[in-house]
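Hi everyone,

Forwarding the result from last night's run.
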Amino acid sequence: MMSDRLGQEITKELSEKVIAHRNQFYDFFVGKYMEGLTALFLYKTGKPVNSAKIELALRSGLSVAYGKNKLGNDCILGLVKNDNTLNNNSIDLCLNDRIATGKDIQYIIPENLRLPTQTEITEMDNCTSGSFTIIRNKDLWLVNDYDIIRHYADELSEIVASRFSLIIQAKVMTVFYGEVGNESLEQMIANLYNGSPVLKASKLFDVEDNMFTINNASLAQNLQELKTEYQNKIAELNTLFGVNVLAVSKESGVTESESNGNLSYVKTNLNTYLRPRQKAFELYNKRFGTDYKVLPNFKLNIGGE
């Protein structure tokens, strides 16, 4: 992009700018995607449910105790400290024979609203006893959601950094030759990069000997290819969390069979998260005659540009 004989300050500044841009993208993408996942499911019921708090806990790898408080109201009781219970399919079948109690809950409600005795609702007695259900993110926890997001954030941040670098290159289309530390030359480069239409130069500056223009005709095509790859990576990530996306990437029209080519895989991933949520509330509905339902938010588009 520019000669090694230029002052290293300008080169270093631009390199650091690209690195900082990449790191900033990584940080906010991971956070924004996690925020988006909290809206992936809709909690349908006649009673208020703090679904965002539930989803935030679940996506962070925690399980939620949901049940009755001392006033008889349904609410989030707290987080589950010991998830080795009868309804947990992630635990070895020989070990999960216990029923959770209030001792297993890290309460987030005031002490004066806690029932003196709390037990988990199970199918062992056909849901005829118990005061709370445990909501889990997945039945089988072999892969951490946060690790998946960070894996794709690594790839996406490199794509974004490459795009940002190309944008800078599009602005720096001129190479200057000069002595290292030449402040006048560095000032000229800085002014050119910042969009100044007029440059001042000394009489010793020779246009033919000290500068030439780079042909950046392929930059637009490279930017488009990087954008396409960015969208493909977002589509892959969304698919892993059950968010439906096109199965193919084409500039022209896409047929219905092509667009639904990975629908079964999307549904499988979606059900990985939907099933344990529904199961927890099915137990609760059977115990108390409520009508809690968990539905996927099909209108959601996470991570798109």
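The first strand starts at residue 41 and ends at 44.

Cheers,
N.
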